[in-house]
Each structure stands twice: as structure tokens, then as C-alpha cells.
Fold:
Amino acid sequence: MKLNKAAIGVFLACLAFPVAAEVIEEIVAIVDDEIITRSEFEEEEQAMLAQAYSQFTGAELDKQVELIRTQVLSQIIDRKVLMHRAARLFDLSGYENMLLDQFKKDNKIDSDEELVRLLAQEGMTVEDIRRRLIEQVAPREIITAEVGNRVASSDAEIEEYYNNNKEKFRVKAEFTLSEIVILAGDDNRDGQRALATQILEQARAEGADFAALATEHSQAGTAENGGDLGTLSAGDLNATLEEAALETPVGSVSDLLEMEYGFHMIRVADRMEAGLRELDDIRDQIRTYIEDTQYFEKLTAFLKKARNEADIQIRPGYEDRYIQAD
Structure:
């Protein structure tokens, strides 16, 4: 966690874990005898809302605001539950010391006195930052130990998924094309056909520069880019052009294609045939999907178990702000 000294205050202000209240105030919930106060609840809610307002607008913003209403208390409670589990498994005091030393090192804080001075400018103490650092890290460590380290996929699972979901891995044909278009109407079609035929002969000549011919002669908007159409998939072209893109050898120029608007020729720079992707080409992609799915399922089950094993009391008036574990 590396910040320059000018940014330390911003970092401290953005952490979503408020300093303990110094006065008696309304209790929102109790988790294993640890109190969640209204100020802690509201501060975290405001942090989540500020993030939502910076990322979304309109109907999506309304949706996110509604989600936050039901997520904020659950998020605080989950953090408390995970912190309590961490305290049972780890030496948190030693961990806090390590994190504090790393924080000082990353931010080039040379002494405890300098740290105290910087924290005082933000209205904080060393104990405040120790707690905030451990509250950031310890829940992640618990999730890694209880969930992340238990996620794995075997070659057999990957092959089974591939064999059971082959339709997901079928790809359309793709073509990298460039074009020359000669426009024609009813009154000049014969003359334009003759011109297009002449250009086609030049384009097919050994050593021909198709892009230069397109820039000079094509009457399509792509002329300024040497006729470049980029890479297109089957279905992106009309039937006549797609057929030509499929049948013309790579590196060659198609026959002259007579269209309603005039005459068209394409050069096929590259082509990938339609078909089923090979397992070895997508093995890592499938592994990631399987392990991400496992992780989500295991995390959901673990958080549900952890909540059910904790003593969680929600005070009247806040029940609708907490998602119960089924």
C-alpha cells in the first residue's frame, strides 16, 4: 500500500471503517457482542453511495442505490464476522504490527513521531490506523484460507465441461478484407463495368498494390484507407460479398461482383474458417470459468455458514437493511 505523503490523508479519509464513536449513540446491530453504531453504519453507507454516484447515472444509478440499501449492513456484519474468525485463527496483534511497519515503509515515514504527526492532521491515532489496516486485510486472508485455497479444477473437469458445452465454443468464419467499389447507374453501367474490369485486371497482376488502386479508383468511403474493411464475421456482409469472402483464396482478389449500386471486388487478406475451437486453445479460459464459478459458490456458502455460526442481533428499524442467511 504505497502513497505519497500528500495522499495519505486522502487514503485515510476513503477507508470505509469509521473511528469508534466517543459518545453513546444508537445501536444498529450487535455481532458477537461487538456493537455496530448508527454513525458507523451511516458513514459506510455514504461511502458506498458516493462511489455509486461517481460511476452510474439514470436508471442504473437508481438500481445501485437500492442495492446499497440492502447491502451496506450486510457488508459491515460480514466484515465483523470475518474479523472475529481471523482473531481465532491468527495473532492479529503481530499482524497489525507487520502491516503498520509496511505502511510506514511504503509511504517513506521514517519515524513513529512522524507517523503520529501525520495521523494527527487527519484526527486519527496510531491505534486507529492499526485497526483500519487489519480490517482491510484480515477478512481477505480468511476468505483466501477458507475459500480461495480450496478452489481448483482438474483436466478431467475441463474436458467434461468442453464436451458438454461445445456449442459455446463454435465460432463463425472471419475475414480480413479490403475493397474497391465502382458505382454505376442504369445510364452508365456498361462504361463503369469496363472500368471495373480494367481495375480488376490490374489488382490481380503480379505485385499489384491493391491499397493504392483502392485509394485511386474506389468510390466507397474506405478509399481513403486503401479500401481496408478490417476483420468481419460471417453475417456482417451481404450474401454475395460473404460468398466471395468464403470462396476467394487468401491473398487473392475476388471475381468482379455486380451489385445494384455498381461493381465490387474484394481482396481476402486472411480468413478463419467457421468451426469448433480446439480444447487446447481454450483450456485456460475454461479453467478460469470453472474456478471463478467454484469461488463464487464456495464464498456464498462460506459466508452463509459464518453468519449462521455468529450471534447476530439486528435492532428494530434496521431489519429491512440486512439480507438474512437462509
User: Anything to note?
Assistant: The domain at 5-152+289-321 is CATH 1.10.4030.10 (Triger factor/SurA peptide-binding fold). Confidence is low (pLDDT under 50) at residues 1-22. The longest strand covers residues 262-272. Residues 3 and 107 are 5 Å apart (CA to CA).
